[in-house]
Amino acid sequence: MKKIAYTVGLAMAVAGGIWWSLSQAPGPQPEQSAAQTAAASSQQREGANDNRNSAGPDPDNAAEAGDRSVPEEIRERVATMNARRPGRHFTAQEVARAVARRDMWSSTDAVATEKIPLEEEQLHDGRQLVQFSPLKLESLQAGDRVAIDITEANTAYEVVIDRVKKHDYDSISWYGHIDGNDGQRYQVSFTRGESLTVGGIDTPAGNFQLQAHDDAGWIASSGSLFETSGETDAIYPPDMAAQ
Prior knowledge:
Layout: H1 2-24, H2 34-54, H3 59-69, H4 72-84, H5 92-100, E1 105-107, E2 128-132, H6 134-139, E3 145-150, E4 155-166, E5 172-179, E6 185-192, E7 196-203, E8 206-213, E9 216-221, H7 222-229, H8 238-241
Antiparallel strand pairs: 1-2, 2-9, 3-4, 4-5, 5-6, 6-7, 7-8, 8-9
């Protein structure tokens, strides 16, 4: 009798344990509605976008945005300049700055005179020392206008560029004119090689010569150059020398 009671008790204990285990097991989860699923997917996508944004802009997209921000006129001008100077790579940013600049040089005493091959007395013989902008000259095309300050004439003239010519010896010439108040047209030319720029400028006040080595240069009237030494030390562009 005791044996039977023990067996029955053991069976009841086992059954109770099984029932407790089943009661603790998770039951089936309710299915998500279509709206809940779509909301969860949207949150995942937003999280992924946030991660990409925190990593910084896509370089490819940034480059495309930069190209779109450059005006077509500047892109065409850069292409023309690079075609004229195959060994020089002009950028849209520097060309845009040059185009925005009104003048080609500024008068200043703070010129790197060591770049100018003149004797000390010649640097102080009345020449106008200028900070020259080679990039402004390089950026000019037919139809452009540029201001040039000539202290001796006490005037800032406006030069209209008529044409640009590339020479066989890796030099480029810009030809233009000044419309004088007297109704006459005065011829102007600038020729630039790799670092040397020379110019001949006819004005209502007379003829002036420009010479610039990189960004350091001088301007003087042709008459004063001849009066000083009996001969000019200006370097003439090829077309002007033949006149």
